[in-house]
Amino acid sequence: MSVWDDLQGQPAVVAQLRQAAGGDGLTHAWLFTGPPGSGRSNAAKAFAAALNCDQDDVSLRGCGECAACLTILGETHSDVAFVRTEKVTITIDEARELVSTAGNRPSSARWRIIVVEDADRMAERTTNVLLKAIEEPTPRTIWMLCAPSPADVLVTIRSRCRAVALRLPPAADVAALLVKRDGVDPAVAERAARAAQSHVGIARRLARDPEARERRLETVRFPLGLRGVTAAVLMAEKLVKIATEEANSSNDERDAAEKAALLATLGAPESGTLPPAMRGQVKQLEDDQKRRAKRSVTDSLDRTLTDLLSFYRDVMIIQMGNAVELVNVELRSELVEFARQSSAETTLARMDAINQARKRITTSNVAPLLAIESMAASLI
Predict the structure, then answer these.
(1) How far is CA 237 from CA 73, 252, 342, 369, in A?
(2) Would the pLDDT of 70 be above 90?
(3) Model's pTM, two decimal places?
(4) C-alpha to C-alpha distance for 232 and 78, rounded to whole angstroms
């Protein structure tokens, strides 16, 4: 076992980080970039574990079996902080707290490490709070920032970080990981990895949840029944419903558990009205949960549109001569017929409409249903 085992299809990245963990090329700030599903946060976590591994022999750092490796991989190590947000952005107060934490010397490990998994979700004013801490680092502190691309981070920040660029691993490598790590049936793993377009997290969800696979297939098949404006409106409503139900299914149970844990921590009475001080804290939690729910629906809808996009991607591949493997192999005959009825230019325009809808949903305050209805009308 090794901390690098989950970084499938990233040999260059593993080699770079292994070398740095051994002391060759180590610096105080790192920027991990790569498309969603490439494993940038997993790479940062593995690197943090290797840096603080209990092994004295530098060639063995990142063993994955010592106490330091296990606690860091489990995100319970006192000297390694993982920062991610389930809201729209990381707030400036959260950034100030990070700077304060980074100023402390490690209590037991070689390094105090701050892993910011959503560095792209910081406004410029918030990012500037981190700038001085990264420009003038505290001894024994290492920053690891994760973002989809270097352009998603302020140039003043990225110019002070060493770049680690990840790519989406081949689907075969993702399938092998699912079989090895999660015990998934090889045929199911292969299908899930291909359907997820090598996104490790989504592939794992599809492999373990038959209902998720059915929801995805329903989404991908929507264009086959798209006949007229009425069908487009109905498709839009269904897409939003699928995304909302998927997001809510994971949020409801977690929200209830968080509220119960907070009430237990506060020593709240089992019945009756809460004291004013407790009501304020519960209200804050509920507000945070509402913001998280909004982002969850947005993220789920974006994944749903990505699945829809894979249909037209396959159509384009067929129209261009089948140069690469299809994502939705099980729909090949239907895809071939659909491709025969349109041109590559039309397919490209439809793909642009889907990407425009994704951009509107994730970067503006437009109502999701309106954005999807507009997109669906462009697909007729």
Answers:
(1) 40, 22, 25, 7
(2) yes
(3) 0.73
(4) 52
